[in-house]
Structures are given as C-alpha cells and as structure tokens.
C-alpha cells in the first residue's frame, strides 16, 4: 500500500493531537514543540480510547480516560495501566502535506 495523504501540516496545532485515518487505521498525529510530526496508533492499549483526545506533554501523549502516557517516538507506555505499546508510523511531509503508509511501522 502506498502512503496516503492524511492532512496538511497547517491542520496541525503544536502540542495537540489530531485523529486521522489511513487505510482504515486510526492514527494520532502530533506536531511537537520542536516542529517534528509524530504518528502513533490512536487507540489506547488499555481501554480502547482515542489517544487523540488526550494531552500532549513533552514527548508523550496521555490517554484522557485512565492516564497512561505513551512515548511519541516509540509508542511505549510510560505509565500504567497500559503496558502494551501502540504502533508508530513513518511520517512523510511533501509540499506541506502529511502522508502515512499505515502498513509501515517504525522499527523500535
């Protein structure tokens, strides 16, 4: 599967998550304070909750429901109750547009 355009960079708000869907897979996009865009699986591995509704702090995205924090670069949970990581996807920016191939995850 080829990378899909999911949004424009201008659609992202710094230190806030945005939910997008690529290839039927929900993904949380985060534009961090350094200007990097991260893409992680949008579903919390603890409670089937959208992570895009959570809180961005430093290099983490916190689930609003139970407080699990996931590292944006690795998808690893840093706090309980989640103990399983979420997938991390490769982000490509072309001419101000954000592309993700949902079949390709980063090797962590």
From TrEMBL:
- Write the record's keywords in alphabetical order, separated by commas: 2Fe-2S, Dioxygenase, Iron, Iron-sulfur, Metal-binding, Oxidoreductase
Do you know which InterPro entries this protein is assigned to?
A: Rieske_2Fe-2S (IPR017941), Rieske_2Fe-2S_sf (IPR036922)
Q: Which residues form a coiled coil?
A: none
Residue ranges of the Rieske domain? 4-100
Q: Which GO terms describe its molecular function?
A: 2 iron, 2 sulfur cluster binding; dioxygenase activity; metal ion binding; monooxygenase activity; oxidoreductase activity, acting on paired donors, with incorporation or reduction of molecular oxygen
Please report a single Pfam family linked to this protein. Answer: Rieske
**Stored PROSITE patterns:** RIESKE (PS51296)
Q: What is this protein called?
A: Benzene 1,2-dioxygenase ferredoxin subunit
Upper taxonomic lineage: Bacteria, Bacillati, Actinomycetota, Actinomycetes, Micrococcales
